[in-house]
Amino acid sequence: MTDVNKLQSDLDYISNTLREDATAGGIPALYFLWAGLIGVGFSLPDLAPRVAGIYWLVAGIGGGLFSWWLGDRQNRRQGVKNPRLAKRYALHWGLMGAAFLLCFLPLLLGRVSPAVGGANFLLVTGIGYGLAGVHLERPLLWCGLLMLVAYGVMVLLMPPYTWTLTGITVGLSLLWAGISRRAAIKAGREQ
Fold first, then answer.
1. Where is 39: in which H helix or E strand?
2. Which among 57, 59, 83 has a CA at the least distance from the CA of 72?
3. In the chain, N or C: fewer CB atoms in 10 Å?
């Protein structure tokens, strides 16, 4: 490593250590983005099943790439360079993407009913968001816990429109997290 690179690495380490991690609570726009994408996308199997697969192909990949770009842009604006954190984000959400694909497999093969499949997506989503709240962004912990409670209710009651209820639950929890995060950022600026 050259002296300039070592010095830059040392300065990045010090700046990350001294200041609160700029990504600790997440970017409100990302919460709002995924609240909308998930709210709409999870309702499609109940309301327009032929469109659901295409929607998620475009929205899942596009939303993921846009999320990465927005997070990277935010970090550059704030002068944050933390490759280890970026790698944790990539691993976490990459594994979640794989888990969603695996969750879709039994539905595709006709081995579970759509109601059970919808509930399973909520379980996987709740675990993923809960763990993201533990390891990445604290507001996601509460979203994940809400989703797990909703999963329990759905499994016990098996209401109609399970997919739509799943989308509403996830969407509202992310909307709440985004509003809370935006308020926390605003309060931090005013102090």
1. helix 28-47
2. 83
3. C
Q: What is the pLDDT of residues 56-99, one digit of tens each?
A: 889 988 999 999 899 888 888 877 778 888 889 889 999 998 99
Say if residue 42 is exposed, middle or buried (CB neighbours under 10 Å; 0-12, 13-18, 19+): buried
Alpha carbon distance 22, 80 (integer Å): 7
* Structure tokens, 166: 């799943």
| Alpha-carbon 49 to chain mean position | 23
Tell me the pTM. Answer: 0.77
Pick from 187, 45, 179, 189: nearest CA to 119: 45
* Ranges of residues in the chain whose predicted pLDDT is under 50: 18-19, 22-23, 191
Question: Which residue's structure tokens are 């929890």?
Answer: 173
Place of tokens 């309702």: 43
Helical ranges in 80-161 per DSSP H: 83-108, 114-135, 139-157
Q: Which residues of 141-168 are buried (b: 16+ CB within 10 A; e: fewer)?
A: bbbbebbbebbeebeeeeeeebbbbbbb
pLDDT of residue 191: 45
Q: Please, are residues 16 and 82 in contact by the beta-carbon 8 Å criterion?
A: yes
21 DSSP 8-state letter: P
